[in-house]
Amino acid sequence: MARKTIFITGGASGIGRAVAQRFAQGGWFVGIADINEAGMAETAAQLPTGQSSCHRLDVRDRAAWDTALSDCAKAAGGQIEVVFNNAGIPIGGGIVDLTAEEIERTLDINLKGVIFGAQAAFPWLKASAPGSCLLNTASAAGIYGSPGASVYSATKFGVRALTESLDGEWAEYGIKVRSLMPGFIETPLLDHAPNRASNEDIRTRVRGAGLEITPVSEVAEAAWAAVHGDKVHTLVGKTARRLAFASRWMPGTLRKQMRSGGRPLGK
């Protein structure tokens, strides 16, 4: 059986690195894409020799997507079975406190970058169908809009909608479209401030709110299951599962909680 290939954005650290390791363990070739070249090299060093390639990619650059995917396919032997649209950045705080630059950058990376990735991935996934897959990183923040995370939630609702739309749009080609919806995951993103005006990192806020931080290995296993399974959205972590339950069965209670100072729930 020919070796399969997964192309991963945001592969220099965190979820991207963990998913790269999981698929490499499964015998897949891994295309690692990021703007962080040193981080990509670190990820590649943790994979078996000859089982990966690195591609500098700014997901906001549509033409760069075509180049990176083509180069990955050449390195892998011709085909790409899975494209993992994972690159993203955190942002939090009241919407009136965010700068235009912060908002535009988040929209460009978290949403426009995913849309560009879907466009660029299509011919490769169509060629390797049936069974090929576009996997998108959404978030628990794409289940119910979270106070203090309005822009982030908007991007992740967009990723969720794109996933559902393309799941129908691409069904005739045999391409699966899936999303991961994690809560707070143990990655370097937690050590960032939610916005430029904040001097408190996201990790401190999560702990202060009494929310759990899920090991990144759980996301990697969820990605493997999503690619090989039939669920459109895969929830990861207690926060995501509780939020999904409340939004479906207790929407009024959830709204009251959010309006009374509920903390943002996100990746």
Automatic annotation (TrEMBL):
Key words of the record: Oxidoreductase
Highest rank taxon of the organism: Bacteria
GO molecular function terms noted in the UniProt entry: oxidoreductase activity
A Pfam family matched in the record: adh_short
InterPro entries: NAD(P)-bd_dom_sf, SDR_fam
Record-stated family: Belongs to the short-chain dehydrogenases/reductases (SDR) family.
Record-given protein name: Short chain dehydrogenase
Organism: Novosphingobium subterraneum
